[in-house]
Amino acid sequence: MIIYDHPQGSAEWLASRAGVITASMFASARKKVNGLSGQQAAYVEAIRAGMTEAEAMLKAGYKAKPKSETVERALRGESVGEFSDATKDYAFRLAVERISGTPLDEGFSTWAMKRGQELEPAGRAEVEVKLGVFVDEAGFVCTDDLKFGASADGFIDHDGGLEIKCLVDPSRIRDVILKGDISEFMDQIQGGMWITGRKWWQFALYCPALEKVGLQLWTKRIDRDDNYIDALEMDLIEFEKLVTENETLLREYHDETDPAEFVPDWEREAA
To answer: Average pLDDT in the 106-129 region?
Structure first.
């Protein structure tokens, strides 16, 4: 594990992330189309977690065992589905960054991203007061091979981490506060624990607009789930191969080569 103690949002922090598959993008990196349905995925995950066939069927809402070939392939540990176009674009961007050593978007930030960076210190202070903990600021943490990384919003004690979200989308705020649904952030949270080796993560939604009703800070502790992390790691390793393939194609490309002759592995397999 390699730790870069650069302030988040700084030029040095952005440079350290160039070409690295980051936890905030793990969900995008593993996104596929034409794969398992939600029900099928629930069944497969239950079986992988050690449930009996009957228990897995009950959890996934099946009255009979699913007989799809896609499900059988997933149970055998084979890859199913195809990377989405957005995922392929992300892989190509990372390949370019690995070659250049700099962010392709030169640190592009949206208004929401800048707002989050500005509010993060106040959110961190709220967490410390509410939970009675001290949060150490963290920069960027990478695996030793520099292929995967995570920017934790802080470390708590020796085993904990922190992720602060400063959302502005009303539907997303509603899902978190009223439904307790943080599923869209789970890849990032469990991914942070995978990268850092920590045992739990504190999720925090900081929304100053709700201070008058005492809801400016919503928190939930998430424990490390090794089964989840194993599945996540498997998907990310597959995605990393796509990044490396793109990088290889770019490095070996010659001016005299007809671009039409380039057929990446994922296109050959799809054909």
So the answer is: 77
What single letter denotes the amino acid at residue 80? Answer: V
* Residue 88 belongs to domain spanning: 9-34+81-252
**Residue 16 in domain:** yes
Under 8 Å between Cβ of 21 and 243: yes
Contact 33, 165 (CB under 8 A): no
DSSP one-letter string for the chain: -EEE-PPTTSHHHHHHHTT-EEGGGHHHHT-EESS--HHHHHHHHHHHTT--HHHHHHHHT-SS----HHHHHHHTT---SEE-HHHHHHHHHHHHHHHHSS-TTSS---HHHHHHHHHHHHHHHHHHHHHT--EE---EEE-TTSSEEE--SEEETTTEEEEEE----HHHHHHHHHH---GGGHHHHHHHHHHH--SEEEEEEE-GGGGGGT-SEEEEEEE--HHHHHHHHHHHHHHHHHHHHHHHHHHH--TTS-GGG---HHHHHH-
User: Does 17 reside within a domain?
Assistant: yes
What percent of the chain is predicted at pLDDT more than 90? 55
The answer for 36, left when phi > 0, alpha when psi is -120 to 50, beta otherwise, is beta
Q: At what angle do helices 85-100 and 226-252 cross, to 10 degrees?
A: 60
Q: Indicate the pLDDT class of residue 172, thresholds 50, 70 and 90.
A: very high
- For residue range 47-72, what is the model confidence (pLDDT) as tens digits? 877 889 899 899 889 888 888 888 88
In a domain? residue 62 = no
The pair phi, psi for residue 136, each rounded to 5°, is -85, 130
**What's the total number of domains in the chain?**
1
Residue 258 belongs to a domain: no
CATH classification of the domain holding 154: 3.90.320.10
